[in-house]
Specification:
Layout (H helix, E strand, L loop, with lengths): L1 E4 L2 E9 L3 H5 L1 H6 L15 E6 L9 E9 L9 H8 L2 H29 L13 H10 L1 H16 L10 E5 L6 H8 L3 H7 L13 E5 L3 E5 L6 H8 L3 H7 L12 E5 L5 H7 L12 E3 L2 E4 L6 E4 L2 E4 L5 E3 L4 E9 L3 E7 L4 E11 L6 E2 L4 E5 L9 E8 L2 E3 L7
Helix pairs in contact: 5-6, 7-8
C-alpha cells in the first residue's frame, strides 16, 4: 500500500514467511507491526524493519520494511541520498541473488583453472622461447613445474648420465640349431657383444653345448696395453670416462696393463667382425688346389722350398676377385709370378695374385671385396692355367686356409 503524508511518500513492502501458526493469527501479526502513520512524521530516508516471532515458533514468520522518501529531495544528478535510494530499490534488491550467483561461478572457475595448472605432469613441455620472463611467470603459476624444467635443462647442459649402469653377465648354453645372431637378438645386444665377450674367432664353429657369457648391455671387451689409460681408451671408442668407470665398477682411474675392461656401446671393427664371421678373406677364384701353403718340392728343380701361398687351378680367362677391401699397392710383371697384383688392406693385411693373363686395376686405386681385378692366366713360371694367391699380415706370410671358408 502506498500513501502520501505531507510532502513525503510512504512505501510499505511487506513480506510474510508464513508458518501454519502465523496463518491462524493474522491479527496478532498486524498488531505487532506498527505502521508509519502511527509514528508521526518519519525521518528522511529512514528504514525500519519489524520482525515478529509468534508464540511457540522458533522461525522468522514476518518482516515489514518501511521506506520513506522525501519527494522534495528527488532532484536530478548522481550521488548523495539518490544513489543510496537507487541501491536499495526493489529492482536492485531482486537482482542481488543473480549477481551473487554469477560472482560465485566465476570464482569457482578461477579456482578450478588454478588447480588444473598445479596438477600438470612434470613431463609436459611448455614453450620456453619467451626468455626469462616466461620462466618467471611459470614460477608464479606452478613453482614445482618450473623447478622440474630447470633441473632437466641443467642435466641436459652438462650431459649427466641419468642412471649409471654396471656390467652384469648372464650365461646361455648353445643348443643344436642355435646361431649367434639369433642369440644376440633374443638377449637384446649386438652380435659384436657376444663375439667379443666370448673371444670367438669363428662364429660358424660355435658348437652345441658351448656356454656363452651374455652381457646386460651392448659393448666389447678391451685389454689394456702399455701406454694406455682411461682417457686414451675412452677417446678411441668415443665414450665418456665415467661410462667406463660405471660399467666396470671402478673406484679409480688407475688401471694396470693387462686389465680387461668392458666398453659400453663400442663396436668391433669391420675387419674384426668379418674375421669372426669367416668373411674377412674370400676366395679370389674357385677351383681345386694343386699346391698348399708351406714347404713343398719344386716341380721344376725338385728341391725342397717354401711355398708362401695357394695354387688354385682355374680356367684361363676366369675373373679374379679381390679377397678383401683395399687399395692397389703394386702391379707389374715378375719372372716367377708373371703378371701380378698386390693389394694392401686395413689392420696390416696384404694379398698377392700371380700368373695373371690380364691386370684390370691400376696402382693407387681402391677395390672392394669381391670386385674383379684381373683374369686367370699362365704367365711366369707355371705348369698350367692357375692363380697363385698369397696372404700376408704385417709383412709375414700366413696360411690363407686359416682365413678362408
Amino acid at each position: 500500500m502506498d500513501g502520501i503524508i505531507g510532502s513525503q511518500r510512504v512505501e510499505r513492502h511487506r513480506t510474510f514467511f508464513m508458518t501454519p501458526a502465523a496463518r491462524q493469527e493474522p491479527q496478532s501479526l498486524a498488531k505487532q507491526a506498527p505502521s508509519a502513520r502511527t509514528q508521526g512524521r518519519p525521518d528522511r530516508n529512514a528504514e525500519r524493519a519489524f520482525v515478529s516471532i509468534l508464540p511457540g515458533n522458533e522461525s522468522l514468520v514476518a518482516a515489514e520494511c518501511v521506506t520513506s522518501r522525501d519527494l522534495s529531495s528527488e532532484s536530478p544528478g548522481f550521488g548523495g541520498t539518490r544513489s543510496v535510494r537507487a541501491f536499495l530499490s526493489p529492482e536492485i534488491l531482486s537482482l542481488l541473488p543473480v549477481i551473487f550467483a554469477i560472482a560465485l561461478g566465476v570464482l569457482l572457475v578461477v579456482i578450478s583453472l588454478a588447480l588444473s595448472v598445479r596438477e600438470l605432469p612434470a613431463a609436459i613441455a611448455l614453450p620456453r622461447d619467451a626468455g626469462a620472463g616466461s620462466d618467471l611467470l611459470l614460477s608464479f603459476i606452478s613453482p614445482e613445474l618450473a623447478d622440474t624444467i630447470e633441473v632437466e635443462a641443467a642435466s641436459e647442459a652438462v650431459n649427466v648420465p641419468r642412471t649409471p649402469v654396471t656390467l652384469q653377465v648372464a650365461t646361455h648354453t648353445v643348443k643344436r640349431g642355435d646361431n649367434l645372431g639369433a642369440i644376440a637378438t633374443r638377449f637384446g645386444v649386438t652380435l659384436d657383444s657376444i663375439i667379443s665377450m666370448n673371444g670367438i674367432k669363428t662364429a660358424s664353429r660355435v658348437a652345441a653345448g658351448t656356454v656363452l657369457k651374455i652381457p646386460n648391455m651392448s659393448g666389447i671387451v678391451h685389454t689394456v696395453t702399455r701406454g694406455e689409460n682411461l682417457s686414451i681408451i675412452a677417446g678411441r671408442y668415443k665414450v665418456a670416462v665415467t661410462t667406463i668407470l660405471d660399467a666396470n665398477d671402478l673406484a679409480s682411474e688407475t688401471i694396470a696393463i693387462g686389465t680387461t675392461l668392458f666398453i659400453p656401446g663400442a663396436r668391433l671393427s669391420a675387419n674384426e667382425m668379418k674375421k669372426a664371421l669367416g668373411k674377412l678373406v674370400i676366395w679370389p677364384v674357385r677351383g681345386r688346389l694343386s699346391s698348399y701353403f708351406g714347404y713343398r718340392t719344386n716341380p721344376f728343380t725338385g728341391s725342397r722350398q717354401f711355398h708362401n701361398g695357394l695354387d688354385i687351378i682355374s680356367d684361363y680367362g676366369n675373373t679374379v676377385k679381390a679377397a678383401m677391401d683395399g687399395k692397389v699397392a703394386d702391379t707389374g710383371y715378375n719372372t716367377v709370378y708373371g703378371n701380378y697384383i698386390i693389394l694392401s688392406h686395413s689392420d696390416g693385411y696384404q694379398t698377392m695374385y700371380g700368373h695373371l693373363s690380364r691386370v684390370s686395376v691400376r696402382k693407387g686405386g681402391s677395390v672392394s671385396q669381391g670386385g674383379g681385378i684381373g683374369t686367370v692366366g699362365n704367365s711366369g713360371i707355371s705348369t698350367g692355367s692357375h692363380l697363385h694367391f698369397s696372404l700376408f699380415k704385417g709383412g709375414s706370410a700366413i696360411n690363407p686356409l686359416k682365413m678362408l671358408n
